[in-house]
């Protein structure tokens, strides 16, 4: 019986195997990118899906209505394509247009040698060029997810004879020809911009005795505007952004000691902001309490799934457990469950605590096993609806395609079907995980070399067989490579060297999926230390890094006026940050589909998003979000130099932790409209906010 306590907020179309004929391989063709959609409609700056193969037009045994028309530029009304059907129901396309470029706040002062708009745009243009990207349309491609069904299968599902009630199936095909997702990072990096980035990526390397030894022995040879300072590099990659205090801590402790401390987050005291998370009342409620108090929470305007995102943002900005938070974000993209799904308000916070955070620096096999028994994942991918006589293959497919071996990891469509049969019986009842033996398929299965008789009526044994299968795929060599590739892409380069990926995969296999040894291998590898300037901050990362480098405090400013008696200043401020991230197109757990956000620069090249981020930096410099406390811009540098050029140098050191190039320095001075030798006061003669904002638009702040 489905969980009746989680009423759907959107129409759902959870189709199951209907026992009729499958689409033939000839029915598959490639579609170009369609239009964006998301949990709240079009989100400017949202990354696109690259071209992927999925069935086009009405399929045998499918009603025509299942394939709604998708409108867009150059769209042929006679051509129909599927929309992704999953945890949020039928994905609705929206128009491709987004809001125009936000205002650059040009004051139009005719006395300035170069207008602020032109100077700031030049700085940002430098950031885009240095990153090596080319602008791409920000339009996600929706994809079709097809659940096929039939009579209750019995017996042996491993042979060449189909036993699940269907006839012609593409069971021997590789998933690359019938994939539901193109692997996002790989797809984007196959573009011309990706090829340009790859040419600037160091190749080859070796492992040293530890991170400090690797840092000392590695020479940075790639072209980059970033300072070749290993401490700054480590702070940029292993945290959500360097701060003066963080850099001082690493230099004081040493690289090895700092990394060791970060790998033991339980020993790091919570920050003041983390203690203030008690002001988000739903965070401490269990799923049962959230269910029981649903009406009261609705009356108070509390939204548990949004408070979870608020809390995640607070930790990213203010937690001292920075490497842990980076890894939580990594796993939230890799083993992705969207916050905004039907049931997310009850179960997503528990998934965050009991699955992702519990295992983020532990064992990935244990994380995947735990995820497959958690109500959030079971409801998100419709496993609760799957039974032996009507199999829903969503979770079985994504376990292989996204959460373990990867789409090219060696499995076939037949493996997906058998995995779906094996996993029948798992579901949610009364808010908790249950195994229903009456829904479970009995019969031999074989998936990627895993075989099991699967013939026991004992619920514990049947459930244990599924756990054994999940652990098997989590330790598969293809999973080791896939996790290694993803980790190297996050920490090193959009096109990570094969030498490093192979080394990380070997560490994963040797340590049975433990994460800390992989991170130690990563930080002890020359490829990591040689990759200065090879990663660009995504919109969420840019915003969080801006809060961090400006030293924004979680305490309310004296100018704050309490206008919402139901929520504290801190809670209101975090919600405003989340809303801005949604506007930028990226926020924690925000991707509506199970593949998570792409982690490469060419997926996020959007002039509108970039300018919007600069404007938000201006808001923070001006202290306009009064729910928090800010350092006045004229006090960012303790003892401001008396000349404009020296002041720019000092402000750059304070905000981006290094010097600017001569060209960038000149552009910054153009923002102020003065030459380098001009004497200025602490306010930069009234231009300090504009100068600081321009520095935060530089490549040195966009790169990490």
TrEMBL record:
Gly residues biased stretches: 88-100
UniProt-listed InterPro entries: DUF1800 (IPR014917)
Biased composition (Basic and acidic residues): 10-32
Stretch list, region Disordered: 1-113, 158-177
Transmembrane segments: 119-138
Keywords: Membrane, Transmembrane, Transmembrane helix
Protein's recorded name: DUF1800 domain-containing protein
């Amino acid at each position: 019986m489905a969980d009746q306590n989680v009423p759907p907020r959107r129409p759902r179309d959870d189709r199951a195997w209907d026992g009729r004929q499958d689409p033939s391989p000839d029915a598959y063709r490639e579609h170009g990118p369609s239009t964006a959609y998301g949990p709240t409609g079009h989100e400017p700056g949202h990354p696109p899906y690259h071209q992927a193969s999925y069935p086009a037009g009405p399929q045998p045994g499918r009603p025509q209505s299942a394939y709604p028309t998708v409108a867009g530029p150059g769209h042929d009304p006679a051509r129909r394509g599927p929309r992704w059907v999953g945890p949020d129901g039928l994905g609705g396309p929206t128009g491709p247009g987004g809001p125009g470029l936000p205002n650059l706040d040009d004051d139009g002062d005719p006395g300035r040698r170069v207008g602020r708009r032109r100077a700031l745009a030049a700085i940002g243009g430098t950031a885009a060029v240095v990153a090596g990207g080319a602008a791409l349309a920000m339009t996600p491609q929706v994809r079709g997810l097809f659940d096929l069904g039939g009579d209750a299968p019995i017996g042996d599902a491993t042979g060449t004879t189909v036993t699940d009630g269907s006839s012609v199936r593409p069971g021997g095909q590789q998933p690359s020809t019938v994939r539901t997702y193109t692997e996002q990072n790989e797809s984007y990096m196959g573009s011309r911009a990706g090829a340009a980035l790859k040419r600037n990526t160091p190749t080859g390397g070796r492992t040293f005795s530890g991170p400090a030894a690797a840092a000392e022995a590695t020479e940075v040879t790639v072209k980059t505007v970033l300072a070749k300072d290993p401490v700054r590099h480590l702070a940029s990659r292993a945290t959500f952004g360097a701060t003066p205090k963080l850099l001082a801590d690493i230099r004081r402790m040493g690289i090895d000691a700092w990394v060791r401390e970060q790998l033991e987050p339980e020993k790091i005291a919570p920050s003041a902001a983390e203690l203030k998370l008690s002001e988000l009342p739903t965070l401490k409620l269990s799923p049962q309490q959230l269910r029981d108090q649903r009406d009261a929470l609705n009356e108070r305007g509390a939204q548990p799934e949004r408070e979870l995102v608020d809390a995640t943002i607070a930790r990213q900005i203010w937690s001292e457990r920075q490497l842990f938070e980076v890894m939580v974000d990594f796993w939230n993209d890799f083993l992705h469950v969207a916050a905004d799904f039907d049931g997310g308000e009850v179960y997503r916070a528990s998934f965050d605590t009991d699955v992702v955070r519990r295992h983020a620096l532990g064992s990935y096999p244990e994380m995947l096993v735990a995820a497959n028994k958690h109500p959030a994942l079971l409801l998100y991918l419709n496993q609760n609806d799957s039974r032996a006589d009507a199999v829903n293959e969503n979770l079985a497919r994504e376990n292989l395609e996204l959460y373990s071996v990867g789409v090219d990891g060696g499995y076939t469509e037949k493996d997906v079907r058998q995995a779906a049969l094996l996993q029948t019986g798992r579901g949610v009842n009364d808010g908790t995980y249950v195994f229903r033996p009456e829904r479970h398929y009995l019969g031999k299965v074989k998936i990627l070399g895993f075989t099991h008789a699967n013939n026991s009526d004992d619920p514990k044994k049947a459930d244990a067989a599924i756990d054994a299968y999940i652990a098997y795929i989590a330790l598969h060599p293809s999973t080791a490579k896939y996790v290694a590739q993803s980790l190297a892409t996050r920490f090193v380069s959009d096109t990570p060297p094969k030498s490093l990926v192979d080394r990380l995969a070997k560490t994963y296999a040797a340590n049975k999926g433990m994460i800390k040894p992989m991170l130690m291998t990563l930080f002890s590898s020359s490829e990591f230390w040689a990759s200065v300037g090879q990663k660009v901050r995504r919109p969420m990362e840019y915003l969080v890094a801006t809060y961090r480098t400006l030293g924004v405090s979680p305490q309310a400013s004296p100018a704050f006026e309490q206008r919402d008696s139901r929520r504290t200043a801190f809670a209101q401020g975090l919600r405003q940050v989340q809303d801005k991230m949604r506007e930028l197109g990226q926020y924690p757990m925000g991707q509506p589909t199970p593949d998570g956000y792409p982690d490469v620069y060419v997926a996020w090249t959007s002039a509108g998003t970039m300018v919007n981020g600069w404007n938000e930096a201006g808001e923070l410099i001006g202290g306009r979000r009064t729910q928090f406390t800010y350092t006045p811009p004229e006090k960012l540098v303790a003892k401001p130099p008396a000349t404009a050029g020296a002041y720019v140098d000092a402000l750059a050191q304070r905000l981006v932790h290094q010097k600017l190039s001569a060209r960038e320095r000149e552009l910054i001075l153009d923002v102020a409209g003065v030459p380098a030798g001009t004497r200025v006061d602490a306010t930069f003669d009234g231009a300090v906010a504009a100068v600081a904002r321009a520095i935060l638009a530089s490549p040195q702040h966009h790169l990490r």
